[in-house]
Amino acid sequence: MLSITSCKQEENKNIQNNAEEEFISLVPPIKEADIKFEEFKIDPSNDTIIYHSSGTEINIPKNAFLNAKGEVIKEKVDLKFRTFSNPLETYLAGIPMTYSMENGEEMVFESAGMFEIDAYLPEEKVYVNPNNKISVSMVSFTKEDNFKTYDLDPNSQKWVETGKDKITETSKEDALKNAPKMPEPPRKAGKFAFQIEDVYNTENSLKDYKNVWFEPIDGKEVGFDSKDILVKDLKNGTYEITFVPWTTTSEKLRNKTVCVLAFKDDESYSNAMNAYQKKYENQIKIAQKERDKIEREWNAYEKELRVYNTFMAKKSVEGLSFERRITRTMQINNFGFVNCDYPSSYPSGAKIHAIYVDSNNKEIKLHDIVMIEKGRNALYRYMSKIRFNPKKENLLWGITNDGKLAYFTTEDFNKIDLSKKEAIFKMRIHPTELKTYDEIMSVLFPNK
């Protein structure tokens, strides 16, 4: 037992040294392909909501920023924000993803989402106001609740646990249903359009609706001979028409229908539309703005989910759909990198010493070598000692000394002789330098 424990500790130490030798500081391996920030100008005197292109929502309360003296900043602040939802984005930003447990074991983060947020003034450092914290609702693709939040210490570049996030799941249908309603516009009169008239002219309460046509919203025919007809403007372009029977005063037996104004000829319809747009201008703008926001959020979610699926096994994405959206909300304690993760072990099953060669079998040197395992949203940094699960789909890549992408595919992994301790990794080297995220994605995942 003592011997086994000793070997295990030495193995963990080797893993840790293996990663640290290659990754010393937070430096993007391909500077031009680093994930770009979006920048915003914030007025600290007002509450602000930012809708990021990733679908993430940033809620900034007023007085959220402090200067070095702890004073509330009143002038406008520049804020920048970017997200990382898959291992390639993490790789291109040069972010460390290892975490040391209390027993000294080196683990690797599996991420439910990560972002970097920063705020600054031209000549002054900006800090988070602990009494008015910014909250971020970040798009995620897992509902598991075993994740915690971490901040990256800028000095030690170690992750520091900060707490838990709050998971929310919504549907596009519910979001649209809860959005401000668009006032109903007038319509061309259909076959069930009707007019109302007070034939006895007892109170003349319907005089304002003389020659007015009503179109039932439910598309059903209406027609009643009633003691009284009541018209109620619902203030959203619709009218509630109530038919009061002759024989009873019971509220339950009254017939009601909700209608919009309808017009028989083109000129009347055109005039009504102009009046409608003028009357409800503000309501229309508010409702349309909210609907546009929902559409943007769902379009961004679908785009991110498609990319996420590229890195994940089919089993890992079962239950995820474009109709339901998962978000994780957390408060910002410090500006910088914020991660929602849980520590997991390195892959197991095979451990081999890799010798990297080109297509001519000439040995080459690589830097920033990483491996991903499909189905795990994690990034494993290696040098020459590679640990992987041979039953999984694995992909390894690194950068040559002349800045070209070299990669080793799942098919290549499947050809490794696991009975040997050493293997030749004949790398596929892209002939030109790749300088964008999309270019690298198209090479590593050519069929996606």
TrEMBL record:
Biased composition (Basic and acidic residues): 167-176
Claim: Coiled coil is one of the keywords in the record: yes
Coiled coil: 277-304
Keywords: Coiled coil
Superkingdom as given in the UniProt entry: Bacteria
Coiled coil is among the record's keywords: yes
Region of interest called Disordered, as start-end residue ranges on this chain: 167-187
Protein name: Uncharacterized protein
Organism: Flavobacterium okayamense
